[in-house]
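Example 4.3 (complexes with small molecules)
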Amino acid sequence: MPQLSLSWLGLGPVAASPWLLLLLVGASWLLARIRAWTYTFYDNLRHLQCFPQPPKQNWFWGHLGLVTSTEQGMRVVTQLVANYPQGFVNWMGPVMPLVTLCHPDMVRTVLSASAAIAPKDMILSRFLKPWLGDGLLLSGGDKWSRHRRMLTPAFHFNILKSYVRIFNDSVNIMHAKWKRLTSEGSAHLDMFEHISLMTLDSLQKCVFSFDSNCQEKPSEYISAVLELSALVTKQHQQIILHMDFLYHLTSDGRRFRRICRLVHDFTDAIIQERCRTLPDQGLDDLLKAKAKVKTLDCIDVLLLAKDEDGKELSDEDIQAEADTFMFGGHDTTASGLSWVLYNLARHPEHQERCRQEVRELLREREPEEIEWDDLAQLPFLTMCIKESLRLHPPTMGISRCCTQDIVLPDGRVIPKGVICIISIFGTHHNPSVCPDPEVYDPFCFDPENIKER
Ligand code: HEM
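Answer. The structure with protoporphyrin IX containing FE bound is encoded below.
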């Protein structure tokens, strides 16, 4: 039997069993990996020293828990941005750095890099995966590029134009409800709750052509979407539950899975029903006829979508995209609209000017409804909406993973492999970009002022 000399390890000659050889190969591989990892870690550390760092909690936890998705978390971001207006590094534990960017010059560099160099990272959104699957928001690589190309027609102006009528109908239902509630003596209404139902109602009609009358009577699907959103936010706020296996042991985790199934069953039933009722007429012809009269809903667009090789989306893909549109579209718009109303209520002078602008536009019109072309004829209201989205952005930040070193305009380098947070809230509240960032001033978006930005 061949003898293996392990004298360099202080061991005598040993029979070279295949297991021992395997162990040696494994150990060498592990050592090589640790060596490469350590080298990369220290190299990254060298590059990251150019970025300022807020004081750490301690060496182990780093900055974990410093920026949370709460009001206090936003105050912390405001302070960090005032101290470090270009960006800063924070550590998620002892070995994971995050580069946070909060200045447009820095953000531009990362966002204009290709999807191969700075693909989306799931650190902020991975909790949504069991719900949204591989829809556009969470997918990456070739799948994302292919679907993105296939779904671009869903956001074509001609399709969006036909939705304005749906938005008007949903808003009229909400207004009628408010009038009824106030006439019955309700002095306080929770705007966000009502507006969320209105945006969900609009989306359900735009995505599924489905009218559940959800603004007036409870709908199981709508309650499920609202509850899933609340559960995701809750999980996000509890760092210990970021570990999926722990989360799924909790009652919230089990409930999350149950409601996910309910939402998926709803979407699946609609897709199956749409496919079942179509075959006799010929799917393509019917969808094309619908496209001509511009009544396509998102499911139609998804059923029609074909890639360059004529390949269609699978039922699972269609489900993921439809669930993504419902999620991506309802909370963002409800939050954006609620804050616009809040800011106008706090500034009656701006509110009055908006009201005059709309009244002027609708003068002598019957019925008094906003149309697509009107949207460009409301410059002051547009400024008020943009300023509200600046002060209170519905999405706080997005994340990217740098697959190559990214050189920022000032020469600093975000090293390959490091995750980068683009702080939308931080950028909007950056005093070096906006002199008085906490003040609601629609003139920030006066066409004269934006020329310089
Ligand atoms: C005020 C309203 C909205 C805000 C603030 C908003 C915000 C965002 C942001 C910040 C992203 C980028 C995520 C990233 O790159 O990492 C995004 C992506 C996306 N949003 Fe929205 N959104 C809004 C409305 C909507 C609506 C109405 C829909 C659909 C009905 C929608 C569907 C999507 C989808 C599908 C993506 C993924 C796009 C892709 O990665 O290719 N969003 N949204």
